[in-house]
Amino acid sequence: MLLPAVLTQWVTFALTERGVEEPWISPVIAAVDAHASAFRAAFDDEEAWGPAKQISAALAARGVDLTDRDAVDAAVRTLNAERLAQQLTGRPRPSGS
Question: Which of 4, 20, 69, 96 could cross-link to 61 by cystine, CB 3.0-4.6 Å?
């Protein structure tokens, strides 16, 4: 996964730009590295995803082009209607939602 490496580079850059000296940056980078495996596990844990990631994953699973605002708006309306119907009827949601 690229994100922990990018975070390490960004933190180094940001702290350097703020004038923080290397002896203070190293422990921060070590902490990022120490927590990278827990981050990877949490990142892939669907139960830990927030609403935006849950919805974007559901839309992507349905083949919705996430760069097409009109398609996303229509798909979100459909997804919301399906979820409301499921709540009202007690029927399980269709797969991918």
Answer: 96
User: CB within 8 A of 9, min separation 6: which ones?
Assistant: none
- In the chain, the amino acid numbered 62 is R
Q: State how far the Cα of 39 lies from the Cα of 45, in Å rounded to an integer.
A: 10
The Cα–Cα gap between 51 and 57 comes to 10
Q: In degrees rounded to 5, what are phi and psi of residue 96? A: 85, 10
Q: Is 18 exposed, middle or buried (0-12, 13-18, 19+ CB in 10 A)?
A: exposed
Provide mean pLDDT across the span 64-91: 92
Hunting for tokens 């919301």 — which residue is that? 80
